Amino acid sequence: MPAVVHLTLSGPTNQLYPKLLHAAACSLFEGRGVDHYAQVKPFSVGPLRSDDGGVAWRLGWIGAGAPPVRVPTAVRFGDSVHSVVAHRIEPASHAKLSAVEPAWAAELNAVSPLYFSRNGRDYPLPDPELIVAGLIRKWNTFSPRAIGIDDELRDELLAAVILDEFDGRTEHTWVTYTQRQIGFLGSMRLALRRGSDRTLVLFAALMRFATVAGIGAQTTHGYGHVDLVELSGRRSSPTRTAAEYPDNGEARSMPAGRRNVAAMR
Q1: Which of 74, 119, 128, 162 has the fewest CB atoms found within 10 Å of its own CB?
Q2: Are residues 206 and 165 in the same domain?
Q3: CA-CA distance, 233 to 105, in Å (whole number)?
Q4: Of 76, 91, 106, at which residue does a domain stop?
């Protein structure tokens, strides 16, 4: 059953390589029955954030059953050991995530760099189809069959979701002493061009699920951690795609007014 694990650690901490975050999370979650080499792992890892002199660490559990975490008295990141000052486990079952008002749009904030592995290349942009497809894959891997997402509903949602706007930058993080990873850091607004009652509810549920599961690649290493800023039940103005503009041999341009996608800085 999905849940969010909140830990407050003693601080301060230096910048940590992703593998150290991953190793610490594995020590918390990988008890009996958890496959370390599974393609889709049942947990996600957030970055460490300063919090009133301490360090806040948010982790997500998306596996079956309650999170197997046994909160220790201290957490080790390589040679750095930090006492656990406080902890809280917040249940977020699939049924609870689904019991939400329908939404036409959602604003998310990437608090750690997100990227996708696409055709053997890293893709550091908040692609709406990749975001939703990845969340559905994680949902179906661990959810009860009765509330799984079927192919018809999946295809309907993927055909409707768009990136309405985003504002952010590319961020390079050190993976090792000599290797860096590029990802997107900032805000994004996903919206639906059309939708049935089922797709609106599913979209809202998946946007909430994103805060537990993470988005993109290496979510167990601290990448792709997001906050849900807002779910909106209000439909945005219809957005025309390039295919809907007449092809008269001239360069296509967006109509006057609001530009739906902000340029990356």
Answers
A1: 119
A2: yes
A3: 7
A4: 91
What CATH number did the domain enclosing 177 receive? 3.30.70.1900
Please state the separation of Cα 1 from the chain's center in Å. 17
Residue pair 174/163 in contact (Cβ under 8 Å)? The answer is no
Quick one: which of 227, 228, 166, 234 has its CA closest to 195? 234
Annotate 12-38 with b (16+ C-beta within 10 A) or e (fewer).
ebeebbbebbbebbeebbbeeeeeeee
Report how far residue 167's alpha carbon sits from residue 200's, in angstroms, rounded to the nearest whole number.
24
Backbone φ, ψ for residue 238 (5° rounding): -55, 140
Tokens representing 28 are 């918390």
Q: What is the pTM of this model?
A: 0.85
Q: How far is CA 179 from each of CA 172, 173, 174, 176, rounded to the nearest angstrom?
A: 10, 9, 6, 5
Give residue-wise pLDDT tens across range 72-116: 899 999 888 999 999 999 988 888 888 889 999 999 999 999 999
Q: Are residues 169 and 207 in the same domain?
A: yes
**pLDDT tens for residues 169-201?**
998 887 777 788 899 999 999 999 998 999 999
Contact between 214 and 221 under an 8 Å Cβ cutoff? The reply is: no
| Residues present in the chain in total | 265
191 and 71 within one domain: no
For residue 99, what pLDDT is reported?
85
| 235 and 147 in a common domain | yes
Are 129 and 78 found together in one domain?
no
Peptide bond between residue 128 and the one before it cis (omega within 30 degrees of 0): no
Domain containing residue 50: CATH number: 3.30.70
